[in-house]
Amino acid sequence: MPESLLAAEPAPLAFHPARAALVIIDMQRDFLEPGGFGETLGNDVSLLQAAVGPCQAALAAARAAGLLVIHTREGHRPDMADAPPAKVERGAPTARIGCAGPMGRILIRGEPGHDIIAELYPAPGEVVLDKPGKGAFYQTDLEIILKNRGIDTLLVAGVTTEVCVHTTIREGNDRGYRCVALADCCASYFPEFHRIGLEMIKAQGGIFGWVSGSSALTAALANKAEAA
């Protein structure tokens, strides 16, 4: 099985595409569009749009190469039994998790705002993982999905860089996965947090993993296809 070489920091990473998964974190309407949870917290949701185009490029390359693709959605049960009070109490009292918003109840599974944006909508057969917390491993079956497919490398995209992306990479690192943040495929409401979040991942020789980008991934997968 030929390896692909991914240009990355702090060093290039050789990986087997058959053992890699593209994990797209929480590219949901509630975070990226006006009226969702992100905006109710006072954020400028337009800042997250920068990640959409690069995510589309990474997703197209992953699909063409046959990588496992996983989409995550943060949100809670309609009865909110899985929503901790400390989390629900954030933000304005009339615009919290579970409150009615322009796209249905905010951050509640099954509501329009909870779903993934049209530009990155999952294809049939791609994994859609609903999670109640920040990390994609917490209270989900992600780990068994990865083990069943023999995955050892996670190519991580999505929002926000310093919260759900970072948490997932930290969780993956502790479980022995090689984690790569695709920098331009990630975004934050706070550009400085995005920059520092990426610096933290690749610091100290890659303490949490690697940092790369959509163009590098596309090139690595294209080279693999040519070699095959």
Give a nutshell description of this structure.
By secondary structure, the protein is an alpha/beta fold.
CATH class: Alpha Beta
- Major beta sheet, strand line-up: 7-4-3-8-9-10
Could you say how many structural domains there are in total? 1
CATH H level: which superfamily?
Answer: Isochorismatase-like
Structural class: alpha/beta
CATH topology, which one? Rossmann fold
Give the end-to-end Cα distance, rounded to a whole number of Å.
9 Å
Strand content: 15-25%
Shape: globular
Count of helical stretches: 8
Encode the helix/strand succession as letters. EEEHHHEHEEEHEHEHEH
Low-confidence runs = none
Main sheet characteristics = 6 strands, parallel
CATH architecture: 3-Layer(aba) Sandwich
Radius of gyration, in angstroms, nearest whole number: 17 Å
Mean pLDDT: 95
Number of strands: 10
- Specify the helix fraction band: 25-40%
Characterise this structure.
The protein is of the alpha/beta class. It has helices at residues 29-32, 37-40, 52-65, 85-88, 142-149, 161-174, 191-206, 214-227; strands at 4-6, 13-15, 20-25, 68-74, 100-101, 104-105, 127-131, 153-159, 178-187, 210-212. A 6-stranded parallel sheet has the order 7-4-3-8-9-10, sandwiched between helices. Strands 1-2 form a two-stranded antiparallel ribbon. Strand 1 and strand 2 (13-15) form a beta hairpin. The longest helix has 16 residues, at 191-206.
